């Protein structure tokens, strides 16, 4: 653990916005991690203001529900999370849980006329897709602070949602990055830092599967990327409004 950082935490300002210190925040959030793994000295704990700490609570809840249900058949830890705390949570029928139940359906997947069995399908609103991106961005900015002891406020975040299939095309991006398996299989990330510009790249893996690529880049670069998307020069990979795992 970065004990120096932890000791000085109360003297510090928010790792995300630079605002007034209020509380400590875990990255990743507690709700994502099984209770049996929570006693972990590698877990980044960061200084946070009240707004940054509270503001993403619903989004984090959403992230855990989403990945534990989507990866249920692929990952033991996802199954354990879904069968345990997530199911308990969904049964409470909070507004977010009720909405998630509505998005899920089972469909028969067919390839060349052959059935591959029932698969989970999710039809998610754009607003709820954005929730996933917001948490991914928050994780990346928090981890940036953890590595560099400074906020990434001057950088823009470009978040790409990765499905297992999409990740195959992405695997070359992993090579220059260093892997940090802070919760082996449950939550791992690969990180690369460009010291000349202060920019960074992350690939975040949740429950053993690649989940997001996040670039923290200068505004000029971000704007150039966005204009290339607009002109059709590069294709925007869009988020999982309909995704079958
Ligand atoms: Zn803040």
Q: Which overall shape is indicated by the principal axes computed on the Cα atoms? A: globular
Strand line-up of the largest beta sheet: 5-9-8-7-6
The tally of beta strands, per DSSP, is: 10
Distance between the termini: 35 Å
Largest sheet: 5 strands, antiparallel
Structural class: alpha+beta
What's the helix-strand series? HEEHHHHEEHEHHEEEEHE
Oligomer: single chain
The level of helicity is 25-40%
| Strand residue content | 25-35%
Radius of gyration: 18 Å
Count of DSSP helices? Answer: 9
Mean pLDDT: 83
Named once each, the bound ligands are: zinc ion
Low-confidence stretches: 237-245
Describe what this molecule looks like in 3D.
The protein is α+β, with helices and mostly antiparallel strands. The protein has a domain at 23-82 and 125-231. Helix content is 39%, strand content 27%. The protein is built from 9 helices and 10 strands. A 5-stranded antiparallel sheet has the order 5-9-8-7-6. Helix 3 (57-70) crosses helix 4 (76-91). The longest helix has 23 residues, at 126-148. It starts with a helix and ends with a strand. Mean pLDDT is 83; it is low at 237-245. The structure holds zinc ion. Residues 14, 16-17, 19, 48-49, 51-52 line the site of zinc ion (ZN).
Features of the shown structure:
245 residues; alpha+beta; five-stranded antiparallel beta sheet; three-stranded antiparallel beta sheet; 9 helices; 39% helix; globular; disordered C terminus; binds zinc ion
């Amino acid at each position: 653990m970065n004990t120096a950082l932890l000791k000085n935490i109360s003297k510090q300002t928010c790792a995300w916005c630079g605002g007034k210190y209020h509380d400590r925040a875990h990255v990743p959030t507690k709700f994502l991690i099984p209770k049996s793994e929570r006693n972990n000295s590698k877990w980044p704990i960061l200084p946070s203001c009240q707004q940054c700490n509270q503001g993403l609570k619903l989004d984090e809840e959403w992230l855990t529900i989403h990945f534990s249900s989507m990866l249920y058949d692929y990952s033991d830890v996802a199954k354990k999370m879904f069968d345990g705390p997530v199911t308990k949570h969904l049964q409470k029928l909070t507004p977010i849980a009720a909405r998630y139940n509505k998005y899920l359906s089972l469909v028969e997947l067919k390839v060349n006329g052959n059935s591959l069995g029932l698969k989970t399908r999710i039809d998610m609103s754009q607003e709820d897709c954005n929730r996933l991106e917001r948490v991914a961005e928050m994780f990346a900015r928090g981890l940036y602070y953890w590595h560099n002891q400074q906020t990434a406020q001057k950088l823009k975040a470009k978040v790409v949602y990765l499905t297992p299939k999409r990740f195959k095309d992405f695997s070359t991006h992993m090579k220059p990055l260093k892997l940090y398996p802070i919760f082996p299989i449950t939550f791992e990330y690969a990180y690369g830092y460009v010291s000349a510009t202060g920019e960074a790249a992350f690939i975040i893996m949740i429950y053993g599967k690649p989940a997001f690529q996040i670039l923290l880049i200068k505004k000029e670069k971000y704007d150039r990327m966005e204009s290339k998307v607009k002109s059709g020069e590069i294709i925007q990979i869009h988020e999982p409004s309909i995704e079958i795992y």
